[in-house]
Amino acid sequence: MHIKFKVNGIECSIDADPGKRLLDVLRENLGLTGTKEGCGEGECGACTVIMEGLAVNSCLIMAGQMGGKEIITVEGLEKDGELDRLQKAFISNGAVQCGYCTPGMLMSCKALLMQNPHPTEEEIRIAIAGNLCRCTGYTKIVAAVNEVSQEA
Amino acid sequence: MEQFLFETPESVKELTDYLKTADANTYLLSGGTDLIIKLRNSGIYSGRIIDMSGINELRHIKRENGFIKIGANVTFAEIGDSEIINRHAACVGQAARQVGSKQIRNAARMAGNIANSSPRGDSIPALLAADAKIKTINGNGEVTLRTIDEIVVGISKNSLKRDEAIIEILIPCINNSRSAFGKYGRESSRTTVVIANLNVATVVKYDRSIGIIEDASVVIGSAAPVPYHGVMAENVLRGSRPTVELGDKFVAALQEHVRESINGVKRYENKIDEVTGIGINIYDMLFGDMITGGDS
Q1: How far is A25 from chain B (nearest CA, A)?
Q2: Residue from B171, B169, B142, B147 nearest B158 by CA
Q3: In tens digits, what is the pLDDT along chain B, a chain of 296 residues?
Q4: In chain B, which residues have their Cβ closer than 8 Å to the Cβ of A54?
Q5: pTM for this structure?
Q6: In this complex, do B8 and A67 lie within 8 Å of one another by their Cβ atoms?
Q7: For chain A, does the N or the C end have fewer beta carbons within 10 angstroms?
Q8: Which CATH architecture has domain B56-172?
Q9: Do A18 and B3 count as a contact with CB atoms less than 8 A apart?
Q10: Please, where in chain A does CATH 1.10.150.120 lie?
Q11: In CATH, which superfamily holds the domain spanning A85-150?
Q12: What ipTM did this prediction achieve?
């Protein structure tokens, strides 16, 4: 099936099995390996991307559902070689340890900030509830988003 | 190489055209959060997928003719945020907000949750307690209206025909109704983003100026193949004043229902503790502002 969509602001089109997962389209067809597979069943959030402004598990989206949609992956956060504000806050707050949850975690947080630039701690925790982290204990991740939330 | 045929109707009319030729290898795609996992686990890599997400005329939440009408294409995120639902069918909104994670809620539709008919589904007890009706359409364009328990008939078993799709969920608006939903997860490792081990929804008709619970609908889920009305708990509430003592009786009735449901199976005994906590929370949510101290 011929599928046209936008990724990180760039128009793309592919010929693929419409039943192929968005996760695999990103990693295999587009070479965007920032998005990770953790569980393949929507429990861990490692595969989170932003589609039409909303955080979704890319392991649970079929290629056929991508037609005409706008998708943002972790590769789309930096601009002209500079990390985005959220990414900088993650680094300075020690919110990245092994890094495996990080792309998905960033996308959940980015989706939240896109909808609500000044979330409360509770809203942050709800936004990342679908993203598992084995290393940080979540505190530093929440602190990083909180830092961005406090800014004007 | 095996592939799927993927069709995205853009109207209900077009949907019926596709449904006309539905066969054993046709799958209705709602949000996809259940279907994709099921297909992969079953080793199914080909077939025909009818994608419901392109039907804009099914994206409504509106109040019409005494019902809240929710189109089949509305996501759990949208239901959880809806002012209409939170005002008139609070238990459905609460259930929606406790389904999965934000990522799941952004993609999943309540219609899919109903069709999936899991005994642990969160929307089904809430919809049953609220006396919801489910509207379907088939390949001949025939529209049927059934109660939710006529649709969800067994463990992962619905009564939909091969060429039938859910297009709308209707919840009756009841004057002076209040409702609440509670859920306890089965995973010991997480407190959120869990599948229910026990869930309860309660809808009551209560006019503060009269002070008596005129009617009650209490549904217990995840304790039996399908969610069911807790008739003893309903009888406890109906006709009574909401006092602290009534709350204790309500919880005791819930415990009795679950004890009966689990039928002596030891590994389900934690459900009795879980319904206790849920029952206390639900009673508090419904009547916490009504219960006053001193002698009544």
Answers
A1: 14
A2: B147
A3: 789 999 999 999 999 999 999 999 999 999 999 999 999 999 999 999 999 999 999 999 999 999 999 999 999 999 999 999 999 999 999 999 999 999 999 999 999 999 999 999 999 999 999 999 999 999 999 999 999 999 999 999 999 999 999 999 999 999 899 999 999 999 888 989 999 999 999 999 999 899 999 999 999 999 999 999 999 999 999 999 999 999 999 999 999 999 999 999 999 999 999 999 999 999 999 999 876 666 65
A4: 77, 106
A5: 0.96
A6: yes
A7: C
A8: 2-Layer Sandwich (3.30)
A9: yes
A10: 85-150
A11: [2Fe-2S]-binding domain (1.10.150.120)
A12: 0.97
Query: How many residue pairs bridge chain A and chain B with CB atoms within 8 Å of each other?
Result: 89
Alpha carbons B232 and B56: distance in angstroms, whole number: 42
User: What CATH architecture applies to the domain B177-287?
Assistant: 2-Layer Sandwich (3.30)
Query: B118-143 as b/e, with b when 16 or more CB fall inside 10 Å?
Result: bbbbbbbbbbbbbebbbbbbbbeeee
| Unique residue bearing structure tokens 């029952």 | B279
B8 and A127 within 8 Å at the Cβ level: the answer is no
Q: Is A65 on the interface with B (CB under 8 A)?
A: yes
What CATH number labels B4-53? 3.30.43
Chain A residues in contact with B101 by the CB 8 A cut-off are 42, 45, 57, 129-131
Cα(B287)–Cα(B239) distance, integer angstroms:
14
Amino acid at A1: M
Residue A41 has its nearest CB partner, among B4, B6, B37, at B37
CB < 8 Å to A130, chain B: 100-104, 193
Domain with CATH 3.10.20.30 in chain A: 2-76
DSSP states of B244-286 as a string?
HHHHHHHHHHHHHHHHHHHTT-GGGTHHHHHHHHHHHHHHHHH
Superfamily of domain A2-76: Beta-grasp domain (3.10.20.30)
